[in-house]
Structure formats: structure tokens, C-alpha cells
Design a protein that fits this description.
The chain is of the alpha/beta class. The chain has two domains: 162 residues, Rossmann fold; 103 residues, Hypothetical Protein, Haloacid Dehalogenase-like Hydrolase, Chain: A, domain 2. It is 36% helix and 24% strand. It contains ten helices and 14 strands. The strands form three sheets. The chain has a six-stranded mixed beta sheet with strand order 8-7-6-9-11-10. Strands 2-1-12-13-14 form a five-stranded parallel beta sheet. A three-stranded antiparallel beta sheet has the order 3-4-5, with helices on one face. Strand 12, helix 8 and strand 13 form a beta-alpha-beta unit. Helix 2 packs parallel to helix 10. The two termini are 15 Å apart.
Length: 275
């Protein structure tokens, strides 16, 4: 085991960083992650996806640390199938927001994730359908009042222009202090518990492992990765990231997501450790 590789805790975003929904994980990423872990490196994901979706997307890629799931609302240990942390929304405040938004945007897709990230579809559209298909998610269609307690996040899904307008609308409304809105993709806007995000998930996991935050490396691509990238000991943006994300990062890959950016970066760590 390479002790210098062992000192790294790598947190990798999934969508458009590690993989794309349509093409999956590039084969070079898959091979280099396995090698990195075999040589003693520690690797996990920090993603908006729930555990079921993470498992479906990664397949035989191992994780050597618990995953930051649902944008930090869940810390999930796949080695024991256990939830280590579970942050929840204020249901009453989130419900008020959902009802208000559904009136203003009648065709909006609405998903609620509860428990260990199980998906409940309150209002379906083609974007919620694509979400389930692309991420291999099972779901239950049910009215808002029938969704079980323990909400970890709400996802609004629509075309980019509708999501842009929804983001602007949400800024003009106040639904209470316990939840906040987070844009995670051009077609998704989410409600998250206040004070919870990928960065808090990383801090909590470092505390559980008794590891200094300085040992962390974060690889990301989007605006919702900025907070955790700023918090990390070292941050890496993939080549397809927006300019603002690249400007925040300590390092930018040559490859894009589909070309194997994660494999490129991890292999550079392996080479450094073997010099």
C-alpha cells in the first residue's frame, strides 16, 4: 500500500464530472479508480444522487469511503448499507413552497426524496421520467400529503428556461428559514435543508474519520460544487466546467468528463506517488 496515496481523501462529483447520464462512466475512469484504490488511495463520490442511483451508476467501481449523497443530506456507507447522517427538510415549509410553485408553474415536475433517498413523484413530466430512466431510479407516484416523513430534498424538473424563471421566482419568495433553494443542473432546482450541502457532508465525514480537511481533494464541474471545492484541501475542475468553476479550482484537467478527466487526475496522483 502506498502511504502517500493513502493520505488523500478524494471526493468526486458524479454527473458531468465522473460520468454522463447517457454514456455512463468512461472506461479509463473505471480502470484508474480501481487502480488508485488498489494502491491505497481513498475515493468516494459527492453527489446529488440518492444511494440507489449511485449504486446503479458505479456498478463495479468500489468506494473506499462513505458517499456524500443527496447533496450532503445523506452520508451513506455502501460497505455496511448504513445511513451515517440524515438531515431533513422542514416538511411544512417545503410543502408550502411546492404548492405555491405548482400553481405558478403548472407543468413543473416535482420529486421528493425521503428516508434513504427513496423517490416519490408528486407531479410527473418528461424531465422526471428522464431522471428516473437516466439514473436507474425506482419511484412511487403519490400526492404530496402521502409522501412519508423524513424528506431529505425536493427536486423541481423542467426545461432550462422554466428552471431559470423558477430560480428567479424563488428568490422573491420566503418559505421559512429551515430550507433553501439550490440549482444543481440546468434542468433541476432543489430544496435542501438549511446549513446542509456537499461541504458540510465532507466536514462531517472528515470528523467521523478523524481526518484533517487539508487531506481532501474535490473534483467537480458545476456551480453547486463551488462550496465544497473552496472548503477542500485541493480542488480540481474538469475541462467542461463553466469559467467561474475553473477560476475557483486549484487545478483544471486537460480532458473533459467524457474524455476521462477523473482518470487523468487520479493517474497524475499515482505517478507522483511512485516518483
Amino acid at each position: 500500500m502506498n502511504q502517500s496515496l493513502r493520505s488523500y481523501l478524494v471526493f468526486c462529483d458524479m454527473d458531468n464530472t465522473l460520468l454522463t447520464a447517457k454514456e455512463g462512466v468512461p472506461s479509463c475512469n473505471r480502470a484508474v479508480i480501481k487502480l488508485f484504490i488498489q494502491l491505497g488511495g481513498r475515493f468516494t463520490v459527492a453527489t446529488g444522487r440518492p444511494p440507489e442511483s449511485i449504486r446503479a451508476a458505479l456498478g463495479d467501481i468500489p468506494l473506499s469511503l462513505p458517499a456524500i449523497s443527496c447533496n450532503g443530506a445523506l452520508l451513506y456507507d455502501f460497505s455496511t448499507d448504513a445511513v451515517l447522517r440524515h438531515a431533513t427538510l422542514n416538511r411544512a415549509q417545503a410543502s408550502t413552497a411546492i404548492r405555491d410553485i405548482m400553481l405558478k408553474f403548472p407543468g413543473i415536475g416535482v420529486e421528493v426524496m425521503a428516508g434513504a433517498g427513496e423517490m416519490y413523484v408528486v407531479q410527473a413530466n418528461r424531465y422526471t421520467h428522464a431522471h428516473q430512466v437516466d439514473e436507474g431510479l425506482s419511484s412511487v407516484a403519490c400526492p404530496l400529503d402521502s409522501v412519508p416523513d423524513g424528506w431529505v430534498k425536493v427536486v423541481f424538473a423542467a426545461d432550462p428556461e422554466t428552471i431559470r424563471k423558477l430560480g428567479q421566482f424563488a428568490k422573491t419568495r420566503f418559505y421559512g428559514r429551515d430550507n433553501y433553494f439550490l440549482a444543481t443542473n440546468s434542468i433541476y432546482l432543489e430544496i435542501m435543508p438549511t446549513g446542509v450541502g456537499k461541504a458540510t457532508g465532507m466536514r462531517d465525514l472528515c470528523a467521523l474519520l478523524d481526518e484533517p480537511i487539508e487531506h481532501t481533494i474535490v473534483i467537480g464541474d458545476y456551480y453547486n460544487d463551488l462550496e465544497i471545492m473552496k472548503e477542500a484541501g485541493h480542488s480540481v475542475a474538469v475541462a467542461n466546467a463553466p469559467a467561474e468553476v475553473k477560476a475557483t479550482a486549484d487545478e483544471v484537467t486537460i480532458c473533459s468528463c467524457t474524455e476521462g478527466a477523473v482518470g487523468e487526475y487520479l493517474y497524475s496522483l499515482i505517478r507522483k506517488a511512485s516518483e
